Amino acid sequence: MTLVPKVRFEIAVDDSLVDVVVDVIAKVAHTGRIGDGKVFVLDLISALRIRTGERDSDAVAA
User: Fold this and answer.
1) 48 φ/ψ angles, rounded to the nearest 5 degrees
2) Cα 27 from Cα 49, distance rounded (Å)
3) pTM, whole model, 2 decimals?
4) pLDDT, tens digit, 9 for 90 and up, residues 35-58
């Protein structure tokens, strides 16, 4: 059995950007070979930027 090295990214974006981000990741990561990866889209219930106290979409924004 040959193991393929893995890298894990966790990215939080506003709902309005999900499709764009997924499309960009898929386009950039695609090689057509085993190991291209998977993208899982999960709901993020809440977010808090501790330094500023910003919540949810404001906390996720750059």
Assistant:
1) -140, 125
2) 30
3) 0.78
4) 899 999 999 999 999 999 999 989
Structural element, H or E, at residue 27: helix 18-29
Percentage of the chain exceeding pLDDT 90: 73
Lookup result for tokens 């949810």:
56
The amino acid that residue 31 corresponds to is T
Query: Which is nearest to 16 in space by CA: 53, 61, 52, 55?
Result: 61
**Nearest alpha carbon to residue 47 among 58, 55, 39, 38:** 55
Q: Write b or e for each residue in 1-20: b if 16 or more Cβ atoms lie within 10 A of its Cβ, otherwise e.
A: eeeeeeeeeeeebeeeeeee
pLDDT of res. 62: 72
